[in-house]
Amino acid sequence: MTATGADPPPGSDGSVVPGGGTAATAQSIKGRRADGETGVKDDAGQRSGPSNRRLRQILKAFQDMSRGGSASGRPLYGREEIGALALPPGSKLRRNPLQEEQGLLWVSFAFAFGILIYMVLPEEPNSAALGAVFLATLVWIGRKMGAGQAGVGATLLLAVLSGVLVASLRVTLCEAPRLYEPRTLSLEGRVLERQESARGPRLVLQALSYNDYGKLRAPGEPFGGGRLPETIRISIPKAAVVRTGDGVNLTARLFPPSGPARPGGYDFSFWAYFDGIGATGFSYGAPELVDLGQASHWLRLKRHLETVRSGIGGRIRAVLPVGDGAELAVALLVGDRSGLSEEAEDALRASGLAHVLAISGLHMALFAGGAFGVALLLLAASVTAALKLPSHKVAAVVALLAATLYLALSGASVATQRSYMMISLVFLGLIVSRKGLTLHSVALAGLVLLLLAPERLLHPGFQMSFAAVICLVAVYGAWRMHRDERGTFQLRTDGGMIRRLLSYVARALAGLLVTALVAGVATGVVGAHHFGRIAPMGLLGNLLGMPVFTLVIMPMGVLALVLMPFGLAALPLKLMEAGLELLLAIASWTIDLGTDGLGVGNGHLVPPGDLATLLLIIGLFLVVLARCWFRLAGVPALLLATGLIWSERPPDVQVSASGERVAIRGAGGLLYIASRRAGFETDIWLQAEGQAQVAFQRQKMTPDQYRCDGMGCVYQAYPPEPKRELRKVASETRRGIEQRVSGTSTGQPLYIAMPKTPQAFSMDCFLADLVITDLEVPDDCAAEIVIAGAERRGAGALSLWLETVKDNRTSQERGSGLTRTVVDHWIAAKSRPARPWHKGTP
Question: How far apart are CA 60 and CA 65, in angstroms?
Answer without folding.
Answer: 9
